[in-house]
Amino acid sequence: MTTRHRPESRRHGIGFSLIAFAFLTAMAFSTVPTPLYPLYMARDGFSTFMVTVVFATYAVGVVISLLLAGHISDWTGRKKVLLPAIALELAAALLFITTTSLPGLLVARFITGLGVGMITATATAHLHELHSAHRPGASPHRFELVSTAANIGGLGVGPLVAGILAQWVAVPLRTPYIVFAVLLVLGLVAVALTPETVEEQFAKPTYRPQRISIDHGDRSRYLAAAAGAFASFAVFGLFTSVAPGFVAGTLHQPSRALAGLIVFAAFGGAAVAQSVTARLSTDTKRRLGLSSQAAGVVILVVGMYTANLAAFLIGGVIAGIGAGVLFKAALGTVAAAAVPAKRGEALAGLFLIAYLGLTLPAVGIGVATLSASATTVMTWFASLLLALLATVAVLARRRPAAH
């Protein structure tokens, strides 16, 4: 792969904004079903376990896509991956619009996962290169802020928009998808208008699935970043899978708009924290992320034990802040350390590990609810997450101090 060094700066600046819009829209669409799950549960008698099966289907799609296609934009070009990825999400939106059956829901979520797995690392790498071409030699803070805000912020925007639409418009299980289908079409146009930053190679390397490699810059730094990403996405997985059901059931708050607002607050806290901590060192961001995430999860569990919505919301926001800051530190570390020829691969590996964190704890929660109460299960989740955060802290402390 070769990166173009002297493109038209203004076109790359506009392209940076266009890719950020497409990235945010794609990630927002991926969480549109989050506040709608209780509606599916009420209509079809879904259990919390079935919700996590649907969520796991999406996550399996993400992981498969990351393994098979998350890294190929390094030699095919960013747009040749982003365009079909967003097209997959559009196909999923059309499926959501035309059917509300469980099989249709499972297929649509799987297709959504395939699209997201192709988008995350590719869009992040594209933003990094557009930023570098538009502002050569500039600080990477703008790239880090926009890429993580599009990713994490998008995950919060989806439930907020879907929850509001589901609360106050007709046909709540279809209208949100119609709105996002239109936005995804605009996302396709945005990508098509953006300059390519990778020159396609005529002699392409031998294809192989994505491998999880720590050989990207300093190995210990990559390993610490990956562990932090897993921990961060464990919290995000909680809020995008079973949290709305907990709010409706355990806290007796069935409002779809409220469910969307709670998820948005958690992810919004993450996005805001990423902005205000932009100039902190990686070590400081990591420590802030670990401590905030730990404190937030404890408060969230207290809110469930006391059936206190305010405590649950505050705990969610604080946990979201911690997860957002910790993930931003991980993303910035990997993007900066990887060489251009392997940046897509390095980011795909990071997102693969992160999405395992998104998937495994959420599925574990769903399975555990078959034999224990939601409050008990959340206590187990919090205990395991606190142990994981402590492990991340120890692991980060062991890495070399000078880089």
| Main sheet characteristics | 2 strands, antiparallel
Outline the low-pLDDT stretches. 1-5
Distance between the termini: 26 Å
User: How would you sum up the global shape?
Assistant: globular
Going across the biggest sheet, name each strand in turn.
1-2
How confident is the prediction overall: mean pLDDT? 85
Instruction: Give the topology string: H per helix, E per strand.
Output: EHHHHHHHHEHHHHHHH
β-sheet strand percentage: under 5%
Q: Look at the structure and give the CATH class.
A: Mainly Alpha
Number of domains: 1
The third-level CATH topology is Growth Hormone, Chain: A
So how many helices?
Answer: 15
Helix content: over 70%
Instruction: State the CATH architecture.
Output: Up-down Bundle
Structural class: mainly alpha
**CATH homologous superfamily heading:** MFS general substrate transporter like domains
Number of strands: 2
Radius of gyration: 20 Å
Subcellular location: Cell membrane
Membrane topology: Multi-pass membrane protein
Transmembrane segments: 12-29, 49-69, 81-100, 106-127, 148-170, 176-194, 222-246, 258-276, 288-307, 313-339, 346-371, 377-396
InterPro entries: MFS, MFS_dom, MFS_trans_sf, MFS_Transporters
